[in-house]
What does this fold into?
Amino acid sequence: MTNSIPDTSRRRLLFGGTAIAAGALLTACTSNEQTPTPAQTKGEDTSNPNAAAGKAVTIGFSAPAADHGWIAAITNNAKAQAGAYKDVTFKQVEAGKDAAAQRAALDTLIAEKPDVIVLLPHDGKELNAFGLKAMEAGIPVVNLDRAFPDALAYRLQIKGDNYGMGVAAGHYIGKALKAKNVASPVIGEIAGMDELELTQERSAGFKAALATYGFTVANRRAARFTADSGQKEAQNLLQALPKIDAIWNHDDDQGIGVLAAITAANRSEFFMVGGAGSKKAIEDIAADKTVLKATVTYSPSMASSAISLARLIAQGRGMSDLVELQVPKEVILASETITKENASTYLKLGF
Amino acid sequence: MSEQAADTGEVVLRLSGVVKTFPGVRALDGVELEVRAGEVHCLLGQNGAGKSTLIKVLAGVHRPDAGDVQWLGERVEFSGPQAAMKAGIATIYQELDLVDYLSVAENIYLGHEPRSLGFVHKGQAARQAGELLGRLGHGEIPAQRLVKSLPAAGKQIVSMARALSHSAKLIIMDEPSAVLAHDEVGNLFRIIRELTAQGIAVVYISHRLEEIREIGDRVTVLKDGRTSAVNLPARSTPTRDLVSRMTGRSIEYVFPPRPDTAPGETLLEVRGLGRSGEFTGVDVDVRAGEIVGIAGLVGSGRSELLETIFGARQAEAGTVVMNGKALPPGSVAAAVRAGIGMAPEERKSQALLLGQPIYRNMTLTNFSSYASAGFTNAGKEQAAAMRVADQLELRPRDVNRAVRTLSGGNQQKVVVGRWLLGDTRLLILDEPTRGVDVGARAELYQVIRDLAANGVGVLLVSSEVPEVLGLADRVLVMREGRVVREAPAAEINEEDVLDLVMAGSLTAATTEEVAA
Amino acid sequence: MSVSSEEKVEAPGGHPPHTAPAVAKTSWWKDEAQEPMRRNLGLVGVLLALFAIGAFIRPDLYSNPDWVINNIMVILTQAAAIGVVTVGMTFVIIGGGIDLSVGALIALSGVWATTLATQSFGPVGMIFTAVAVGVGAGLVNGVLIAYGKLVPFIATLAMLVAARGLAAQISGKQTQISADQFINSLATTRIVGIPLLVIILLAVAGLGWVLLNRTTFGRRTVAIGGNAEAARLAGINVRGHTMLLYALSGLCCGIAAIMLTSLATSSQAAAAELYELDAIAAAIIGGTLLSGGRGTIIGSLFGVIVFSAITNLFAIANLPTEVQNMVKGAIIVVAVLLQQVRFSSVTQFARRHGLTRAKPQT
It folds into this structure.
């Protein structure tokens, strides 16, 4: 045991000073001053009779607290679109981390009596009862992307087409390989979170479309919609398949990692199709410097459209191009294929 | 109930020649006991006399190796605590075994809830629990209340209600007054009297003679696992008699002789040390080369005192001065730097890394001093540990062995040896020979005496009064958080100490007897 | 104090001096001190078995030595980030704690290091930020646990939730792309054929081994985890050290965040999902006792590599993820059972239940 007592006061001072300096530096580093993504909105186009101001309405909105770019874009788009209308008051409630939390938040929303509710549920089945309750209370519900099983639980259903996404990706790959005359191609698939129904639908569509060309998936890995998991699964996929003709990656966010793995492995003998349609992916396709040649959309722009339609529903108006005096009950967005040729027109819809 | 009535009640429990051995220890060595319905039968004995083991045999926790247990006239062997409970023997342990987060009623009927088809009748349980509490004169305790929120006395009553719920004919109470404040003891006695009036027998264990005099009918005394006296009248047996039956060892320990030389300069000066609820106003001096022993019952504040001097507990009042320098309260590191070492009471849970090698346990306090630039030096540590192992005659003398594989005595040597490696001037020993067999004890005594001969001051606590008297140069007797007597070891004997710790003033007890 | 060795303590009072019990030569299979070595050999056996299965399923790939070497590097690369975290986790668990926040701290460090503002400071700024954020958050864990007396499980669970939240807040829930070529090139750099990330892992593990086995820091860690009260009563600053352990774990998270950012050329709030469970599982199958006081860095490293090799093998065999997770779970259970059940107790069990008999009955 030493009897010398270290000069703690000076040490502490030094340590404290360093800690404060580091803290100050770090807090300065949290800013992300990037140019905000141009919102996917439709402005007050004077030629569009639907754009003309109507009765003032309040739109309630709820979407899960997202840790993923796509859902973040949903909320941003909804907000931006509502802001584009002078006659809309936008009331957002946090949906929390699970269906129960969202239900609780929505109950408070009902009490405030909005004219219409736009809702991206955590789980369509679990929030079906809420839909029924709101409709009974006379508040029309616009379901965004995750369907309620009960038709009485919503006024309008607007969603993307997961199966169609897989089909689009399958057709793109099938056509391209046929054009190249590849006899029995090696096709890889990197799916998203496997426990989600949407992933299963995408894969089913992909499989069905490839089957029409007589092709099958050689190896399928499921990542977690994150770049690091995409990197890991892609790295393993590349190991399993020393020669590949085409890959479909379900999600452009995880695609960042997938592309990193492909670059690191120096592989370029194949082409890749992405999914969802992120801004980065569309830029990459336009630049044409990576194996990413196309992406099939599942656009969060549906949130903007949902707000527009919700406004019309609340105001009792129909879509001006249609004959009907009311908004239709179901809108399913077609999955579009973005390639180098049309990338510039889609860039504003990238998220 | 009068002593005559106790003699006439029907015998419910009779033990004869009960033996229980554990590896290395003969805890019970032929115990006799006779308990009659409606009496309060007191069990008396020093620590280690076998009281706890006897209770556990009665409660069905231990099975005796030999001897006879007769319950209600029939020879029985309980397969477990449940069987004993079912037969009508309930035990109320000192650490009340209640479930804190269940209600009073749920605790009382735990394991035998009134139910049908697997559904518990909560209402019925609560009503019956209320009746039981009423029988104990405590109908005011709400049956729905969580047990956690009750004070110790309340929990004790719940334990008794639980015993009644099993329609117990014998209730064993292990030092029930130890958890109670002074004025609550009277209430306890009132309940005990009501129980005995209903024909229930009570086996009552306490260290406090005045309680035995007040509530007891007959006394059985245990010593070294044997009954040294049976069925003494609780009120009329003179204190001297009781004490002498408890003392006097059948196994005589050999203590090393005290040196003639006078102790050196004062190392430790403790003045007015106190912690609320534990001890107050304690003064202790320890000089170089001196062994100071503290005698006292569990709960007298002796272990707490040692830990506070060592800085393991924060002093609330008073000062600890070592080598003329005041120690900051609550800092073990400062105490160690000042040259104080401690071998705590619970060797395994407080002192040793059982899975680690001996040398690492020995160098636990000072491995840094063998290190250079933060890198440990196992070679130096092993060499140093080996020197101490030789000095203490550690067996086996293989410092790379895990401490777990050592006997209790050798484990204790490792703990003491730890402090021989550093600059320890004062060694605090809390129960140094607990769980140590007879041969190893003598060795430890010699080690302690040798340390003192080398100028180390020793402050020692032991539950075994002869050990304190035989080993120490000076003795402090503690009772209820205070030092009640301080004397050179040569000027005080075992009976005096026992009298002091059990009944308070020796003079008071003797004058009373003289008067009687 | 010293007692000279001439003054031998003698056993007085006629007690026969105890004879040292003969130190029975324990067989290698039963010697407790050899336990870590046995376990590591077992894990190497598992790795060899995985290799054999792979060779059986895909002889076309495994017959190509270049492919095999490359595949080993892939397995090690995928073990790199989680391996660094597991080294920190091993220290925390040996020290008697647990850190559930490692995945979240990687995400937070990674996101903080890849904001546009941080990226403007270049690679040094990014690395400094990741490490500082990791250590800072680790210190918060440590202070809450050591001085705030929170249970490690609760404190780090709270940090898990809070750090992911903060990461989402900073990133605006977007995937942040790293534009820094130096950071991105870390994942692709090889030195004498070995990926730089693998070298970093080996370096961290090597330093961790030295720290644990050869320094006073490591000794204190083992002592506190083995018996915190004994360590305290021996004068060891238990609280201060406990705090440092969580800071160390945070440091490892910061390093791992840079590695992961480099691999994925990006970072996001959802990154390093469930890394805490993978790290704990790897430490446990590597022989670290969850109650503290015992564990080895090498075992943990093998644990990580085994998991990484399983993921790789399942990809090569084109088996779905759910089967892979079931196998991982089974391996954890088997590893822990092996830790508890010794050979002798198995034979005892067999004897008690009449599974082995001296004489066959007919």
Chain C has one domain: 37-336.
